[in-house]
Design a protein that fits this description.
alpha+beta; four-stranded antiparallel beta sheet; disordered N terminus; about 450 residues
Length: about 450
Amino acid sequence: MPKRSRASTARSSKNGRAAAQELESDVESDGGSIEGETMASSAQLHDDLEDDPFFAETADEKRARMAKDYLQKLDQTISGEVDAAEIDDEIIAHRLRQETAEASGRLKRKVADQFKEYDFGKADVRRGHKGAATCVSCSRDDAVVVTGAKDGTVMKWDIVSETKQRIFPSSKKFGPSIMTTAVSDDGNLIAMAGQASKIHVYDSRAGKLLDDLSGHKGLISGVAFRRNSHELFSGCFDRTGKVWNLDEMAYVESLFGHYSEITSMDAMHGERALSCGMDRTVRLWKIPEETQLVFRGHHAAIDCVSMVNEECFVSGSQDGALSLWSTKKKKPLSVIKAAHGLRDTGDANWVSSVAAYRYGDIFASGSCDGVVRLWNWEHASPKAFKSAEIPMEGFINDMCFSLSGKYLFAATGQEHKFGRWFKAPRGVNGLGIVRLPTKSQNN
């Protein structure tokens, strides 16, 4: 946490002395005696306290009352407008168990069976940028979906009304490329960064830019919020990661270890950040311990990484391979070579994006071969195998599953997010939306 400066402390002391002198002068001008007024105000205060329904409650009674209030708030988030008398204890207990399991990393969602024999059809791709879309992110409730692009613009999408709004930049038509975005779980804050070497923080409620955070010295390639907080992790081509506190709009610390450009970042509940880079390594940063775990297995630069849960993650590389990892092992649990086929030259298509279904047994990968691939894996047996293919033209530069499990969002474009080595003329610079099956749809 940032310390208060001497200047601010001096101003506070000066303001306090001025207020005290003003109070003394007021007392003297009134004739000096305030004893009667003090007794009257004390009597009034006593009457007000007696009117307070919680005046006589003990500490245990106060804790019980606060617990009941918390349960009522939880129930309101579940059912919308339900009277407190109708609270379902089983629903609340399930919600509490789920939150605890998420925080500890023990939650497991078996959703692969819902995807079997489901007709995904063709993805809904919406045009929105002049340049290739490079990144996509969404809030916990799917209310905020954001894409950034090489033309320097950031779009906020409304999935239901099928409308979009440009939220950055506000004055210029275009700007430096935006390479990464992140939305806080509550949907209030949107972080976006790229070639400008600054992290722009946008308030989605007020509809305005809050601050520009400086500190990196190169293209910022990844930002990720820690779940249920405003703590932000960032990775940059200057080979460093950084930790930020967006409640205070303050820099916290730097993460050193990569010896080449960082290309992607991810985070979940724990005080940990996951990064990958062109040095062919994935690194798990343990922030409180100030240590890191290094994972090696790819034979080329790693472009993307996504956490399944607190103990597993998936990565995609320019060697064309997908790898499934455990934080307890240095080598991958499963490797899928040439996951998106081969080019005419005989080289494997680069894996440009991966997205894990949080706590689930499904993850997605994207490249430039015209399809998004879904992969199934078992928690007991970590071998991954292909589950489905969804047609989507162009480069799939980034993807994310909505936490509700209803959508898979993709940032699509005619070019790779980090360069112009290849061209996909049939691609659309915008947002790809895949509607996912749910239990109700399969019944």
